[in-house]
Design a protein that fits this description.
elongated, 137 residues, 5 helices, mainly alpha
Length: 137
């Protein structure tokens, strides 16, 4: 009763932190950080474009939790590699289009910075799509 040490909680925490050390964990964490920064910059300068960052942030967080908690092995009616590939591929295309539009329109410094970060996000999501392409493995 007095012992508050729970080995299962420690094991669960270790599993979660081990995922952060993998390539997929680093990619998803970087995508979340980039989406939050783009969301902040778009909210300040061009609120119409911020919905893309919100949607991609939510999707990246969902996939981060699914992979971190190892739910992709427990929920097998969804093909996770293809779902992750399509998420990353569509995000790369949408960020590329949105960033080009924002950079062509020209505006404030925060808008230009958001456009440049959008291009970085497009390359990050594109690399994630390349790495997670299921037929490549």
């Amino acid at each position: 009763m007095a012992d508050s040490y729970h080995p299962s909680a420690f094991s669960s925490w270790t599993t979660c932190t081990n995922f952060l050390c993998t390539q997929k964990g680093v990619l998803l964490f970087a995508q979340i950080i980039v989406c939050v920064s783009i969301l902040t910059l778009f909210s300040a300068s061009a609120p119409g474009y911020s919905s893309l960052s919100v949607i991609e942030l939510i999707c990246a967080c969902i996939f981060f939790v699914v992979y971190m908690c190892d739910l992709h092995t427990k929920i097998q009616f969804i093909h996770w590699p293809w779902s992750d590939f399509f998420r990353a591929f569509t995000a790369a295309i949408l960020y590329l289009i949105t960033s080009i539009i924002v950079l062509v329109e020209r505006g404030s410094r925060s808008r230009i910075t958001a456009g440049v970060l959008g291009l970085i996000a497009a390359s990050l999501f594109g690399y994630d799509a390349y790495v997670t392409f299921p037929l490549r493995q």
